[in-house]
User: Which sequence fits this backbone?
């Protein structure tokens, strides 16, 4: 059997090498590097796809969240509730605005638990930061309900969720604003860093446009202290190229998930993510295929010996487990999950036969 890396970073380029080189020479010949036509076209396409008023290309999703929080005036004394099962970038964005991130536990869907949100609310709580992890939208109805009853803002971390929906609405379209990531390993990935802020709010959109470009408006007048966090024109063109076939990208990932489900669903040693045919109000895009496994570390070593790469996200730690960040909360569900979680290969370079071969190694490991 050939080796199957967890993610083949070179593969995305080699799949369409000549097309990408043509794009690159066209853009360099035009000298169109920053905030040019290709960026505007991609932003318009993204906004239309998501059914939101504004999509603003930014340097990365972390900056996108920071700018979204700054646009709504988050600052010192404010608390932001987030799920500890996420990348540190999510709460870091609130911390960079001077606010206090408050980690809470996950529910059975491994996403932020609405009941835990409610329990963590204090007079200082200003916002909720739901994270639509692994290409699945959080159960937004109860989250919107908590937010409404307590007068809280929702800023969504949709870094992993472009195209995923809940009750027919796109992840990233529920709150005041959201950030999406185009990091190379994300479903829509460029050849470097990239991100977008999406919002239906004209004022937030205007402020984020100022903030990403040194606080300058279209006349060059500086209105506020800004950042330099723009989505490069070339990266925007690369994204637009892939975005044209985004439906195929999603269906391949869902097909891989269906193979994993049918080949592994019977194993008592595993707890799989929801199956694509069993979404209910959800439509999942499978940014990742994260499962729980008995004897996880043994399984990973066994797969590694057979050339199959797996990953435990974020160094194997939830955010509240990083001692240097000084959190004191105990989050039993998240702690339990991190002892058992791992991810199988899930991307465009993995074939359905690869997924079958991976599943068969896993069955072999458990003697099934
Ligand atoms: C990737 C990721 C981010 C950060 O995105 P960047 O574009 O790398 O800044 C934030 N949150 C989550 C959940 C992510 O997966």
Assistant:
């Amino acid at each position: 059997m050939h080796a199957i890396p967890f993610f083949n970073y070179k593969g995305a380029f080699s799949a369409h090498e000549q097309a990408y080189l043509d794009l690159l020479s066209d853009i360099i010949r035009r000298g169109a590097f920053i905030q040019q036509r290709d960026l505007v076209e991609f932003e318009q396409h993204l906004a239309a796809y998501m059914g939101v008023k504004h999509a603003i290309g930014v340097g990365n999703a972390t900056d996108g969240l920071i700018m979204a929080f700054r646009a709504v005036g988050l600052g010192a004394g404010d608390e932001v509730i987030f799920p500890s099962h996420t990348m540190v970038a999510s709460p870091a964005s609130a911390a960079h605005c001077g606010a206090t991130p408050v980690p809470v536990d996950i529910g059975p869907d491994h996403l932020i638990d609405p009941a835990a949100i409610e329990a963590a609310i204090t007079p200082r709580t200003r916002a909720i930061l739901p994270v639509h992890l692994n290409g699945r939208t959080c159960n937004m109805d109860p989250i919107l309900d908590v937010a409404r009853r307590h007068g809280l803002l929702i800023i969504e971390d949709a870094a992993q969720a472009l195209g995923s929906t809940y009750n027919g609405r796109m992840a990233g379209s529920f709150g005041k604003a959201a950030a999406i990531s185009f990091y190379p390993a994300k479903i829509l990935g460029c050849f470097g860093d990239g991100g977008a802020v999406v919002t239906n709010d004209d004022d937030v959109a205007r402020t984020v446009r100022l903030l990403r470009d040194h606080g300058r408006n279209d006349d060059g007048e500086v209105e506020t202290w800004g950042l330099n966090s723009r989505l490069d024109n070339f990266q925007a063109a690369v994204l637009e190229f892939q975005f044209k076939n985004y439906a195929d990208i999603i269906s391949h990932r869902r097909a891989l998930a269906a193979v994993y489900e049918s080949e592994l669903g019977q194993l008592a040693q595993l707890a799989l993510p929801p199956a694509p045919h069993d979404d209910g109000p959800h439509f999942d895009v499978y940014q990742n295929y994260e499962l729980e496994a008995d004897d996880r570390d043994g399984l990973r070593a066994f797969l590694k010996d057979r050339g199959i790469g797996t990953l435990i996200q974020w160094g194997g730690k939830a955010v509240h487990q990083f001692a240097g960040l000084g959190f004191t909360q105990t989050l039993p569900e998240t702690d339990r999950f991190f002892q058992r979680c791992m991810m199988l290969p899930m991307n465009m370079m993995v074939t359905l036969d690869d997924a079958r071969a991976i599943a068969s190694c896993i069955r072999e490991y458990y003697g099934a």
Summary: The pocket of pyridoxal-5'-phosphate is lined by residues 60-62, 86-87, 89-90, 131, 133, 157, 159-160, 181, 183, 193, 195 (CB under 6 Å). Residues 246-365 form a domain with the Aspartate Aminotransferase, domain 1 fold (CATH 3.90.1150.10). The chain has two domains: 10-243, 246-365.
